[in-house]
Every structure is written in structure tokens, then in C-alpha cells.
Amino acid sequence: xxxxxxxxxxxxxxxxxxxxxxxxxxxxxxxxxxxxxxxxxxxxxxxxxxxxxxxxxxxxxxxxxxxxxxxxxxxxxxxxxxxxxxxxxxxxxxxxxxxxxxxxxxxxxxxxxxxxxxxxxxxxxxxxxxxxxxxxxxxxxxxxxxxxxxxxxxxxxxxxxxxxxxxxxxxxxxxxxxxxxxxxxxxxxxxxxxxxxxxxxxxxxxxxxxxxxxxxxxxxxxxxxxxxxxxxxxxxxxxxxxxxxxxxxxxxxxxxxxxxxxxxxxxxxxxxxxxxxxxxxxxxxxxxxxxxxxxxxxxxxxxxxxxxxxxxxxxxxxxxxxxxxxxxxxxxxxxxxxxxxxxxxxxxxxxxxxxxxxxxxxxxxxxxxxxxxxxxxxxxxxxxxxxxxxxxxxxxxxxxxxxxxxxxxxxxxxxxxxxxxxxxxxxxxxxxxxxxxxxxxxxxxxxxxxxxxxxxxxxxxxxxxxxxxxxxxxxxxxxxxxxxxxxxxxxxxxxxxxxxxxxxxxxxxxxxxxxxxxxxxxxxxxxxxxxxxxxxxxxxxxxxxxxxxxxxxxxxxxxxxxxxxxxxxxxxxxxxxxxxxxxxxxxxxxxxxxxxxxxxxxxxxxxxxxxxxxxxxxxxxxxxxxxxxxxxxxxxxxxxxxxxxxxxxxxxxxxxxxxxxxxxxxxxxxxxxxxxxxxxxxxxxxxxxxxxxxxxxxxxxxxxxxxxxxxxxxxxxxxxxxxxxxxxxxxxxxxxxx
Length: 738
What we know:
Helix content is 58%, strand content 12%. The protein is an alpha/beta fold.
């Protein structure tokens, strides 16, 4: 930070809220870290609990300082977290079990080495994700799987909490041991404390509830000792307290000589669980940061938070700290108190650091049931959130998946639960996505036409019999689960003989993301259907990658005109319409007539007073490549097309040409601009030589004056032409909206 920033932090306006929030955060952090230390260093490792507490508090100090100085959100609090601690507890227990016959002096160095390696690897992974800006990876993890992970973590924490309070691991073989009178006295008070705290925090959100509950529960414990005349030494001998601890500081990092004692084989046997810590830490960090954006109503740079957590874990891991990262609840707490300052975590971290060196004797007097209850509260809060509250938020299948994952974790193990959860989520996704309709629109050639202006006789034929052309506009991702719906739709249409039998099949791929190899096989079956039904099949808007897949599958053959690939749906429809009109006996599709004045009325038979109109028209012969109109030209003319082929196109800034319409004999162009007086919005280029008649604005005015009846017939004919276009567009839009 800059000096100017530090001066601003130490102003009374910022300092007082920061001191208050930092003190509260320190009390909660110390209690949480002691509980997590008791979770990891339990059973055969309980004799190292004091050293474990030192490691956790050292982590709270280092992670807290690094997060406060490098985070993108002032007021962010970082500390060693419960989710990775729950997995580390499994790792520590597994290492202790595998080393029962080994040198007892090697146990602690091996467990600490496993913790250090986990933190260093996790920190490196954080740094890589942040460096490559990969925070969006969290979006690819199914939400119910995340919920199952967190609920399973809650189960492990709750299970470990009972072990902390009773010094007896909870297994399927010993559940009856927990109901013995001596064991009930160990864990029942902690359970009551956890449930009361959980209910209180669900009903109220005051910041003093958690620290107040810790103080009150500790007071009740010592009040009971006083009323029952039980000396503190006797209570400690019964295991009701965390101590006694050796005098001096709590933090004892591994000495260089201890590295020779590490059992690397025991660590390697648990690499799968250490990998789970890495994955869950990333998920939890990004979930916390995403939730904080909502809680504090401020955008957070997730990639920077990954870098922050990476640096913090590398620094902490070198000193033996377990994995830590940004905390959701404590950060939200500091912002509610108005302490949006980096000093909050600095103060909390410094108090944790002071406890390492001066708080050993004081920590030894803390009741085991209180901190076990605090740990049990953390586990229960996860389980209640995802096993009960989530029912209001999740669909039934997703909610049941959360329960399935927790059940597998409880019965078989954490890694098995994770693997099964991901597998089930993938299966559910495939089944659900298979139900998504990949056919966006079903159209036919009687409703949807190409952007080719044709003579009225051609248009009438297409309107009456164009349903022979069946159009499927596809979307999404095509694979074995979705291609089947397309096959079923084609079979259905082939069976349907009314109003017209199916002769042309058009598949539009403009909105298709991609397809897999199973979809290519399904398309092969589709082509077989087309062959069997004597259908002409046209595909449009194939992306380069999809086209390459089809070529590899042998589906695109330039010599086979029964299976065509067109650049756009418009081109595909034009090809089908030409084939259809040719089958109806119409061989002149371009309107190439013999040149002559008398053929104007033949080309526009619906236009009354054509003879009078010809007196005001200018006949032109145009050649291929000529430009009839240009974008931006003045709207002082329109053209009647007798023959030839004309393309209305738009040139984009990058030089790409988009075809808007194709005009053939019997069509008009420029009438809208002439009547509205607006500049030309596109170019009209001659694609094939032909004959046109030009009506200028001046000639139109003269006709209005000299032959108003002929002008009226022209206006009526233009209005009818435009109304027909609007009607066709309305039918198309209505079909697309279905």
C-alpha cells in the first residue's frame, strides 16, 4: 500500500470501526482455529494439539497479513479454513494409522509435511488460475455437486467434533459407545451449545452473538465447576479442557533435522485426498468471493483474489500453515460494521500472532466442550444449509443429488462421494439436455420464402404447394441425445402426405454450437432416410468445424446433388424453390424474355393502365456487373424488372457482403425510397444481364398531372405489392414465434 493509503486508514473515522471489527474477528478466528486444530490433531495425534494450535494460529497470522495487503476488497479477511481442514483431518488420521509401527518421533513431522505440501501445491494452483484468469472455471461445476461437497464437509466436521469432545472416533462399529453416561457428559453439552448457537444465528444476525455465546458457555462451564466443587486440575485430568500445554510459545515449526524423519510413503498414499483439498479450496474460495459480491454490493476481481490466496498459501505453507483463503462471514461482518479497511485483517492477524507466543497458558483453560461445540456448529451449519434450506432453492432432482453425495461420503469416503456426485450430475445433465428441443423452428416453403422477388405466378405456386419444402432451424449442441428428436421429426413429416408430400428437407445450422461424433452417426441415418424417401436435403450455415466433421464422416460429396451445403438459409431456400418450380414445368426462372415494348404488360399482368405507364418509363439494357443503385443515392427513381438477375446487397465495414434480396423478372426495386423520399440503404448490382424500365420522380409527377387515373392504378398496384410483402413477412414472423 502507498503511504497515503496508510494515513487514510489511521484516521479516526476508519480506525475505530477497524479496531472493533478486528478485535471481534480475532476472537472468532482464534476460537475457530483452535477447534480446527483439535479436529486435525485428534486421536493418536492429540499429544501434538498444542503444536497444531500453533500451526493454525500461525496460518491465521500469515494468511491474514497477506490477504489484507493484496486483496482487491479492503476489509477482506483471510484465515485457514474449515473445508480443507476437514480433509486434512482424514489425511492426518490415515497417516497416523499407517505409521503405528513406525518411529513415534516421525509422526508429527510427517503430518506437518503433508500439511505444508498441501498448502504449497494449493497456493501454486491458486497462482496459476489467477495468472491465466481462469476464475470462470467455477461456473462449470454443477451447483448441486458443490452443495453435496459442502454438506459432506459439514458431516466430516461434525463427525470430527464429536471425536474432539470424546476422544473417541465415530464409526459404524461404535455408535453405542457414545450413549454411555461418561461419554454423554463429554459431547452432550457441546451439542446443546452448537444447536442453541445455530438457532440463534438463524433467527438473529447481531454481530455479538457468536463471541457472546463463547463467553457465556465458558462462564457456564466454570460456574458448574464452582457449584460442583470440582477443581480445575481435576477437570483437566478428566479431559474437559484443552490443556494443559507446555510452557512457552505454541508455534514450533519443523527443524531441519526433522525432515529426515518424514515418512514420504505415508504421504504418497494420501495424494488423492490432498488433491481433493486443492479442488475444494478453489471451489470454496471462488464461491466465497462470488457471494461477497452480493453481500457487499461491490464487484470483486476474482482472478486477483486467486493470486492473493496463492501468495498467502505459499508464504503460510512454508511455515506449516494449513490451507487458508478469504472468509465470507467475517468479511461480511466487517463491512456491516462499516470497517471497509485493510486494517481489520491486520489487527485480527496480529492478535492471532500474539496468541501464538503469549496465549498458551490461557488457551489451556478453554473448555473442550465449548470448542468442540463450536466445531460442531460449523458442521451443522453446512448440513442445515444444504440438506434442509436448499430444498426451497433446488429442484427435486438436484436436492436429492445433494443427499446422495452426502450419503456416499458418509458410507464410503469423500473422494468416492465427489466422483459419484460428478458422474451423477453429468448423467442428469445429459438426460436433461436431451429433453431440450434442438429444433428452434419448424417451417415450410409455403410460409417461409427466400429473399428472391419472383413473379406473382411463381409466388402463388410457392404459397399453394411450397409445403413440400420442410425447414428445420436447429440450435444448441447436437449429440446422441438430441439428434434423435430431429430424426423423429423427419420421420413424422415423411409419413404426413397432406397438404403436400415431403420432397425437400432444409436443415439450418446457424445456431448450432457444435456436434459430436455420435451426432455425425445420427446424421448418416438422416441421409439414409432422405435417400429412402427420395428427398433432396440441403444444409445451410455450416460452421467450418462442423463442415470438417461432416467431411470426415463422408457426408459431404460434391458429386451428390441430393445432399447440398449452402452458405445461408436464404441460398438454401432459393435452391429448393428453383428445383420446385422446375418440377412444376417452369423452366424460365430468371425472366429472360425477348426484348420488346409489348412484353411489359406480359411481365406485369396485374398492372392496369400499363400502356399509359409505358409513356413515362425509360427502357434500359443492363449488363452483368453494373450497379443499378448505390447505398446513399437520392431516391428519385424506381425500376420495373423485365428480365435478368439483380442482387440487393449490403457491404459491411470489414468488406463482407451480405445478400439481402435477389430480384428476377416481374419484380420492382426502389419503390419504397421513391415514395418515402429516403436515401438508398443498400446496393443493387446486376448479377445477370437483362432489361429494366425506369420511372423517375419527375415522370411520376407528370403522370399524376396528365393521367391521374393511370397514376392511381400504379399507386394501387404498388400498395397491393407492399401489402403482399407485409403479409408474407407476418406469416413468417408468426411461424418463427411458435
